[in-house]
Design a protein that fits this description.
- The chain has 280 residues and is mainly α.
- It contains 13 helices and no strands.
- The C terminus is likely disordered.
């Protein structure tokens, strides 16, 4: 009986937390299908249902709502950053896991210490550096910001590479393979889970970021904004009564690519995390 009560209380707590977590998401989704353009808090479910918010957001762009442009900008930035960041992370992880060189451990310790500090502490310095180089209010500058320090997040990938048997690399050395050949033809083919994990993590960072995007793209040119800035602008007190329904629709549309990516890659994503946590 004691075990049953403990299990029941545990499940009730999980159900309550799930309910609290899901209520805002459900409200966002149902509000996006409302015929009312503003914020309606009188009822949870809309009295009139409509697809007008999605239609206006996707096919009736104006000076305020340019969602297709924002989506395209964010997607391009996220894809470029994903490729660069993934390459940096995998190369740094391979170097620290499979190669031995002077100052290897001090460099690893320094990287861990730097990662302990929030990235926002350096954003003012980063902004003025990019401003000096005339890279503010450009997508190139934003790509540099997101991808420049990606290699510091190498620890999970390194932990995964540590699980790959040394005998495979030693056999390749005996056959005359170079480090590049071993990396591309021996290690990478065996590292699909950690590659998927790294790709998803690298894609999510620019896709969901607001702080750095708002700081860098500050000229007020809405066609250059990312999705996060554009949707945030819709919540201005002078616009919210007209664009809140479109804001909810935009929130739903932004979550779809990420949800599909997670569903497809979930198996490899979990294997990457658990595999990278075995050794450190």
């Amino acid at each position: 009986m004691k075990k049953f009560i403990k299990t029941l209380l545990h499940n009730l707590l999980l159900a309550f937390l799930a309910f609290v977590w899901l209520v805002p998401i459900v409200w966002l989704v149902v509000t996006s299908f409302s015929a009312y353009t503003g914020m309606n808090t009188s009822t949870f479910f809309p009295k009139e249902w409509s697809l007008a918010q999605y239609k206006n957001l996707l096919f009736s762009a104006d000076s305020v709502a340019q969602f297709p442009n924002w989506f395209k900008n964010t997607f391009i930035i996220a894809c470029v950053v994903c490729v660069i960041s993934t390459a940096f992370v995998l190369m740094v992880a391979y170097a620290t896991s499979c190669m031995r060189f002077p100052a290897r451990k001090p460099l690893m310790n320094a990287a861990v210490i730097v990662n302990l500090f929030p990235g926002v502490l350096s954003m003012i310095a980063v902004y003025f550096i990019l401003k000096t180089l005339n890279l503010t209010n450009t997508h190139l500058g934003l790509i540099l910001v997101y991808s420049a320090g990606a290699g510091l997040g190498y620890l999970i990938a390194k932990g995964f590479f540590d699980t790959i048997p040394n005998s495979l690399r030693e056999a390749a050395y005996l056959d005359g393979a170079s480090e590049a050949t071993i990396f591309w033809k021996v290690v990478i083919p065996m590292s699909r889970p950690i590659i998927v994990y790294t790709v998803i993590s690298s894609f999510l960072s620019p896709w969901m970021d607001f702080v750095y995007a708002k700081l860098m793209l500050n000229a007020g040119i809405s066609s250059q904004w990312t999705v996060a800035i554009g949707l945030y602008n819709m919540l201005d007190k002078s616009l919210i009564n007209t664009y809140f329904g479109q804001f909810c629709a935009g929130g739903v549309l932004v979550s779809i690519p990420i949800s599909v990516l997670f569903v497809i890659m979930q198996k490899f994503y979990v294997e990457g995390i658990t595999g990278g946590a075995v050794k450190g």
